[in-house]
Amino acid sequence: MGCMNKFALFVLNFLVFLVGAAVVVVASLTIHKSNEFGALLSGGMLTLPVIVLLAGLAILLLGFLGCCGAMKENSCMLKTYALIVMVLVIAQIVLGILIFVYRGEAEVILTDSMKSAMGRYGTGDSALDESVDAAQHELECCGILNYTDWQNFNYTGVADGCCKEMQKGCGDDWFNKPSKPEIWERGCYTLAKDEIEPFGVWLGILAIGLAIIQLICVSCACGLANKSREYV
User: Fold this and answer.
1) Which candidate, 161, 160, 149, 141, places its Cα nearest to that of 119?
2) Which of 7, 71, 131, 135 is buried most deeply by CB count within 10 Å?
3) Is 80 left (phi over 0), alpha (psi -120 to 50) or beta?
4) Where does the pLDDT of residue 186 fall: very low under 50, low under 70, confident under 90, or very high at 90 and above?
């Protein structure tokens, strides 16, 4: 039974190591996507993917240590490992609940952040104007939910970056122009949500699978620790 627990614990921790590596990759891709929208957020880069990235690195390290603990069969090391894994599982569950409960608030924070950045467009901050123009033109989006959001700001028209052929002043008084330059109509928040959401689904699937594996790891570690103690 002890050999079975040892083998199972080693294999499961190797899986934890692989899942941790997958979380790091997915979180890194999410951060990359988030950074593309950084110029449109007054608060800067999204912090949740960074937290997930750090958690992925911790999981990766834990999987490696778990494999070592299984090979050494040290009772104290195995019980400490089991305790750390249980704490991590509880933390993952709490984080998952918080993300689910406060998902709506997170969307409000993001849209408000975009409103704050776009609301300062055309007020004399040339660096901000250039950043917003470059971000919208590169991402091929305009406004928050769609291009009509620019009617809610003090700026008369749309940002120059909304124009498919961006030129200085092409968005000035756009809504009143008889001959309007062609613009991107999709909102930047809508685009960001569509771009990042698939990664969130994969992170959720990985988290559920990881929690199941970790609970089995705890069971195997405790069983192996008790078996090792019998030989002391």
Assistant:
1) 149
2) 135
3) alpha
4) very high
* Contact (CB, 8 A) for 144 and 114: yes
The confidence score (pLDDT) of residue 51 equals 67
DSSP 173: T
Token digits of residue 133: 């123009």
**Gap between the terminal Cα atoms of the chain:** 17
Positive or negative CA dihedral for 51, 44, 155, 193? negative
Distance (Å, rounded) from C-alpha 122 to C-alpha 83? 55
Q: What is the DSSP letter of 60?
A: H
Q: Is the whole model's pTM more than 0.85, yes or no? A: no
How open is the CA angle 210-196-194, to the nearest 5 degrees?
130
Considering all CA atoms of the chain, what is the largest pairwise distance in Å, rounded to the nearest integer?
89
Cβ neighbours, 10 Å, residue 59:
25
What secondary structure letter does DSSP report for 156?
S
d(CA 126, CA 64): 50
Nearest to 214 by CA among 23, 9, 5: 9
Distance CA 98, CA 105 (A): 11
